[in-house]
TrEMBL record:
Pfam families in alphabetical order: DUF1996
Signal peptide: 1-23
Location of the region described as Disordered in the Swiss-Prot/TrEMBL record: 148-176, 265-316
UniProt-listed PANTHER family: DOMAIN PROTEIN, PUTATIVE (AFU_ORTHOLOGUE AFUA_6G11970)-RELATED (PTHR43662:SF3), PTHR43662
Domain of life of the organism encoding this protein: Bacteria
Bias type Basic and acidic residues, positions: 158-174
Keyword Protein biosynthesis in record: no
Domain DUF1996 per the UniProt entry, residue ranges: 332-466
Name of the protein in question: DUF1996 domain-containing protein
Chain coiled-coil ranges: 197-224
Keyword rRNA-binding in record: no
Length: 489
């Protein structure tokens, strides 16, 4: 393709062959020039499709009478602060450059390879309503037409003592004892009585304040004293708050939900991968998808640098519009997501793993309800390139993660119904709109960042979400969606 070209006929020929496979056999010709450099015969036009020539393919499940039609939109900006890195704390926790491609972030300000529940909770956010959730996706770039010589590969320098000390510090921080308490918002009924809403919100806030105060004491309390000094008192305080919440329902003549399970807390001596997850059990395509081999230390570009990575070069295009919207279910009410729930959309290694988890994400403004493609769209004059990511929304009711990061939350069936044992939670839709010049679209010069071996296959588009909303915000979200309102915060 017409990308930053390297003085290696072998590299370009291999790239062309790989792209031909991805594109279903499209020809990309590489020829050698007299000085040994390689030239590409234009862009791989087979990856770019005029959207006006594509038949409508978007099918929506028919809404039933009890469908939830409300929406809750969160304004978290469009990464104006330039938060980029090639990490993925969900699929490859603790691995610097585990993604090998650059992510755009909005929401949580601390997100990197070492992020965990504790660090996410303590961080700031770009979201106007205080939502600390992490939303991130691979960047889109415009590539140059002119060939460039690649810089010689950097020699791997031995880690400095300071680097080793920092690594040890990071490891110690990650393994530090943490207080974990069950989620309460996900135990609330689908509809909270209007007259009880203010009281429930207040008590959810009290619940988080009590837990936060207890968390501050963990590091300074001896392990043998934690049950008496932290866990016992915190359990009692949380139980009292939960009882008041249950009474609030009773006073409105509604059967009180059993919130008692949310009273129990425990101190864990190290980050063990959250509820129902053993981090040592990563498997299948997702564990492979974020490059386990990268544990052999590749450099992590600093935020604010030019952020060019091996195989991912060019000018980063920040979205002109980032729309984060939570939606309902076509077949009934939704329940709250648990705090720290991890959710994946798409597959970053769809070319290697096959299409099972891949999603068609690409469209143009004005075509969102008609066409979604697994190719890069060429939009008509006046329309903009757009990515639409609809996340899975059927939760198993127990776990915030799973070994392959997918089994705990799955997509509903074609009719919008969750399979047995799963419950509907608000569906996150992330829509990203870009100002890509029409000539760049026609020239095939905009690409999504990818693993090098995926060669910018548009089918590898993906997205990640970790819910760090306060339970107060989450409860507000659920009530908005279930009541059919259109809320913006």
């Amino acid at each position: 393709m017409a990308i930053h070209r390297r003085k290696s006929t072998i590299w370009l020929t291999a790239a062309a062959a790989a792209m031909a496979v991805v594109a279903g056999g499209a020809a990309v010709v590489a020829i050698s020039s007299s000085d040994g450099s390689a030239l590409a015969d234009g862009a791989d036009k087979s990856l770019f499709v005029d959207i006006t020539k594509v038949k409508p393919n978007v099918k929506k499940p028919r809404q039933q009478n009890n469908a939830t039609t409300g929406t809750f939109t969160v304004n978290c900006g469009r990464n104006e602060n330039g938060h980029f890195n090639p990490d993925n704390f969900i699929a490859q926790p603790g691995v610097r450059n585990g993604a090998q491609h650059l992510h755009d972030y909005v929401g949580n300000l601390s997100t990197n390879a070492d992020s965990n529940n504790q660090s996410l909770q303590a961080a700031g956010t770009t979201c106007r309503n205080g939502d600390k959730s992490a939303y991130f996706w691979p960047v889109v770039r415009i590539i140059d037409e002119e060939p460039e010589e690649a810089a010689p590969p950097a020699e791997q320098a031995p880690p400095k003592k300071d680097d080793k000390a920092q690594q040890d510090k990071d490891k110690a921080a990650k393994e530090a004892a943490q207080l974990e308490c069950p989620d309460a918002a996900s135990l609330l009924p689908e509809n909270v009585p209007d007259a009880a809403q203010a009281e429930i919100d207040k008590e959810l806030e009290n619940l988080e304040n009590v837990t936060a105060e207890a968390e501050k004491k963990v590091a300074s309390t001896k392990a043998q004293d934690r049950d008496n000094v932290i866990v016992g008192p915190t359990r009692e305080k949380r139980a009292a708050i939960l009882n008041r919440m249950m009474l609030a329902f009773s006073r409105q003549g509604q059967q009180a939900p059993d919130l008692n399970p949310a009273a129990a807390c425990a101190v864990k001596d190290k980050a063990q991968g959250e509820q129902g997850l053993d981090n040592g059990g990563q498997n299948s395509d997702d564990a492979q998808a974020e490059g386990t081999e990268q544990k052999k230390q590749q450099a992590n570009p600093e935020e604010g640098a030019d952020n060019e990575l091996e195989g991912n070069e060019g000018k980063i295009q920040r979205p002109a519009v980032v729309d984060l919207q939570f939606r309902g279910s076509p077949v009934g009410k939704v329940t709250a997501m648990p705090k720290f729930l991890r959710v994946l959309y798409g597959d970053a290694k769809a070319g290697q793993n096959g299409p099972k988890n891949a999603k068609a994400s690409w469209t143009c403004t004005g075509f969102e309800d008609k066409v979604l493609m697994d190719k890069y769209p060429i939009c008509p004059q006046g329309a903009k390139v757009k990515r639409v990511h609809d996340f899975p929304s059927c939760w198993d009711g127990k776990n915030i993660d799973s070994a392959n990061h997918r089994d705990h939350i799955v997509f509903p069936d074609a009719n919008g119904k969750c399979k047995q044992g799963f419950k509907a939670v608000p569906q996150l839709r992330i829509s990203l709109t870009y100002n890509i010049p029409l000539e760049v679209q026609k020239d095939g010069r905009y690409l999504v960042d990818s693993f090098p071996e995926e060669e910018h296959n548009p089918l590898t588009d993906h997205d990640d979400f970790a819910n760090v909303m306060s339970q107060k915000i989450m409860n507000r979200l659920v009530n908005c969606v279930n009541s059919g309102k259109k809320c913006r915060e």
